[in-house]
Write a structure and sequence with these properties.
By secondary structure, the chain is an alpha/beta fold. It has an eight-stranded mixed sheet.
């Protein structure tokens, strides 16, 4: 039995290490060797759009209580500096209770189309309603607390046409919150690195919902109660064997949360959306191309179940240690030491600002605790499709330098 528990411990912990470290390293090696490169699957009508010179672009945004950032967001979209595009902004306000509607109504532009819903129904319903109103060949999705750089839409469309992609995502900069304790900036840089490596293989399996452009005919209507709309669109493209490009030059910026409670709520919501998507696409995995399926399992599914692997690894190493396995004893001590370190940094960070590298283990642990709570709530069917406003967005610069990006 000691041998069995040793193997369970090794496999569980190896799964965690592989997903966060081994998989990105494998991507890097594959990209260097040129593996996985293939021509982009041509979307229906992609060439005809480019040849006809169609430059109409519709931007879609669902908003709820976004008075702090909606003005900057819309202004940046209406002031995009490429005159070759006829850019129209469609915003649906999901029964906002603050000054969001008044701010939007005060913006004088015939390219701004407002849909001020009186009943709160959630982001999914708002987005589906807006999709019925747009008819441009190119659709850009963003959030109401995000500010685009002046050439973002032009950069997205240029990459979309150049690569015959079905969809193109841009480069989202998450800036420091005032507290300085939120490590999503560092983690987001890590995620961008993984996305860049995937893009080199033409096999992106996720997109940032705050900045992506998709061909109109490739958009899939969202199912009722969908939580992570961007993840749903990305995985829907994979089922159709379409691929998403990456335009690093297309920039947008937004702040991280300043409230720890809002951050926990955001992580919980993302986690529930992840498990919802995993269940929805579980039976469609055979429709993915083999490489995309492998990356989806490695980059997404394995991470979503990392909390379960951590618990399994801790329990198995404890049992193996009791049965006399030296390796289990060593691994058990290492895990206990890591969790104690996280507890100490949690206490210290409440009064002292610690370096980001010191807080990384704590961020990793808290993220997985949130995912575990999300999994429990999802199993209990305690899932709400309504939303909040977890980020703040005041005078966000569009600087992509290391100083501006956390």
């Amino acid at each position: 039995m000691a041998v069995l528990f040793t193997w369970v411990t090794l496999i569980s912990l190896a799964g965690v290490v592989y997903s966060y470290m081994g998989y990105p390293m494998l991507l890097w090696v594959a990209a260097k060797l040129g593996f996985g490169r293939r021509a982009a699957v041509e979307p229906n009508g992609s060439k005809s759009d480019a040849q006809s010179g169609t430059k109409r672009v519709d931007v879609i945004i669902a908003a709820f209580n976004e008075e702090d950032g909606i003005q900057d967001c819309v202004t940046a979209l209406l002031e995009q500096n490429n005159e070759a595009f006829d850019i129209h902004v469609y915003i649906g306000s999901d029964a906002s209770e603050d000054a969001t509607n008044q701010i939007l109504q005060g913006i004088d532009s015939d390219r701004l189309h407002l849909f001020l819903f009186e009943q709160r129904r959630g982001k999914t319903a708002v987005l589906n309603d807006l999709l019925k109103e747009v008819d441009a060949p190119y659709l850009v999705f963003s959030d109401a607390d995000i500010v685009f750089a002046p050439s973002t839409i032009a950069d997205l469309v240029a990459e979309l046409e150049a690569g015959n992609w079905a969809c193109v995502c841009g480069h989202l900069n998450l800036l420091d919150a005032e507290s300085g304790q939120n490590l999503d900036g560092a983690y987001w840089r890590y995620e961008r690195l993984v996305r860049q490596l995937e893009a080199q293989l033409n096999t992106l399996v996720s997109i940032p919902g705050a900045i992506f452009c998709i061909r109109n005919e490739q958009v899939t209507a969202l199912p009722d109660g969908c939580i992570n709309d961007d993840l749903f669109q990305a995985l829907s493209l994979l089922t159709k064997k379409q691929i998403t490009g990456y335009a690093k030059q297309a920039q947008a910026s937004g702040y991280n949360t300043t409230s720890l409670e809002a951050e926990r709520s955001r992580r919980l919501r993302i986690g529930m959306g992840n498990y919802q998507a995993e269940k929805y696409f579980r039976n469609q995995l055979t429709n993915f191309e083999p490489l995309s399926a492998f990356q989806y399992l490695s980059h997404k599914v394995l991470r979503w179940y990392t909390p379960h692997l951590l618990i399994l690894g801790l329990a198995a190493s404890a049992l193996g240690s009791l049965l006399g396995s030296p390796l289990c004893s060593i691994l058990l001590l290492a895990q206990v030491a890591l969790y104690l370190f996280c507890g100490v940094t949690k206490l210290i960070s409440s009064s002292v600002k610690l370096p980001g590298i010191v807080l990384l283990p704590l961020f990793f642990l808290e993220m997985n605790i949130a995912f575990l709570a999300a999994y429990h709530r999802y199993l209990e069917n305690d899932v709400s499709h309504l939303w909040g406003t977890p980020r703040t967005n005041l005078n966000i610069p569009t600087d992509s330098s290391d100083e501006a990006v956390r």
